[in-house]
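Notebook p. 47: complex prediction with flavin-adenine dinucleotide.
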Amino acid sequence: MTEQSTVTLTTATPVTLPDAQTVTEVEHYTDRLFRFRVTRPASLRFRSGEFVMIGLMGDPDPVTGKQKPLLRAYSIASPAWDETLQFYSIKVEDGPLTSKLQHIKPGDQVILRPKPVGTLVHDALTPAKRIWFFSTGTGIAPFASLLREPETYERFEKVILTHSCRDLAELKFGQELIEETKNDILVGEDAQSKLIYYPTTTRETSAKMGRITTLLENGALFADLGISDFNAENDRAMVCGSMGLNTFLRPMAFAREPIPILATM
Ligand SMILES: Cc1cc2nc3c(=O)[nH]c(=O)nc-3n(C[C@H](O)[C@H](O)[C@H](O)COP(=O)(O)OP(=O)(O)OC[C@H]3O[C@@H](n4cnc5c(N)ncnc54)[C@H](O)[C@@H]3O)c2cc1C
Ligand SMILES: NC(=O)c1ccc[n+]([C@@H]2O[C@H](COP(=O)([O-])OP(=O)(O)OC[C@H]3O[C@@H](n4cnc5c(N)ncnc54)[C@H](OP(=O)(O)O)[C@@H]3O)[C@@H](O)[C@H]2O)c1
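Predicted complex, structure tokens below:
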């Protein structure tokens, strides 16, 4: 299921929310996942890989009638040079924010606190040959920013993105990202020679099945890609996704051959 809608900015409604930005594009992938774009505040500067707080106004307090912003952390899923800001979101059925956020349409407003922060940034890693981006589910979001960042290809000879999802429909955002990156005017040529994409599914049959943790543990990842195991001098890694992924990858990478890892969930 892919529904997409866009709006020209001239039709947007007037600003009423604090730190409001206008939704310009929404695409639903499944009943659990969607992406959207919002206008970028002229003053917003961020480093590719960082996250911001975004949200909507909460329901009125039953006693006072007052409304408070309902905010959550979201990785910016577009590079620092982009004119608009993209986000890739889960839809949690009873989630305070996403039960509402999933209904936004072009022209609507979302709150975006203009204070980007985060640890999945280039400054945090020393130079090496390969950079690994390990992701599950919406954890691909910060890498959607870093994959389109020229510095990624300036600093590394190989850029390896692994993305594990439940089923094939959940891989679509990543597949589109890889296609766009390889056709990108800024990074396309480098991505074609340096970027390796390793998608896996865990609950639906696909070309490659299994949790990335299992595929690492049994060596299938390295065998499939025809590349060598982790090496402290050659490799750096960033991890984003489920808590289990983070807790597994850290000690495992260190147990084999210590490599610098930045992890977030
Ligand atoms: C630094 C950081 C960056 C984040 N970036 C993103 C992002 O780019 N995209 C995104 O969708 N979420 C992201 N999240 C999670 C996000 O902040 C919210 O938790 C999510 O939007 C759900 O909000 P909610 O209020 O609906 O439900 P919450 O009350 O926040 O969550 C309810 C439950 O839903 C589950 N859940 C929450 N988020 C996810 C998720 N992304 N995938 C699978 N299960 C989840 C958890 O079990 C959680 O306990 C990030 C979190 C952190 C800490
Ligand atoms: N910090 C950030 O910038 C940022 C950005 C975006 C998202 N996030 C976080 O990313 C998380 C996404 O959740 P999720 O990935 O669990 O989503 P999910 O959609 O529930 O799961 C996605 C995939 O992860 C696999 N998985 C679950 N536990 C695993 C484990 N212990 N080891 C290896 N693979 C595992 C699942 O396999 P099975 O089918 O076998 O369960 C599934 O294939 C959320 O917690 C969200 O807050 C953080």
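Notes: The longest helix spans residues 243-256. The chain has two domains: 3-116, 122-264.
Next step: compare against the earlier run before touching the bench.
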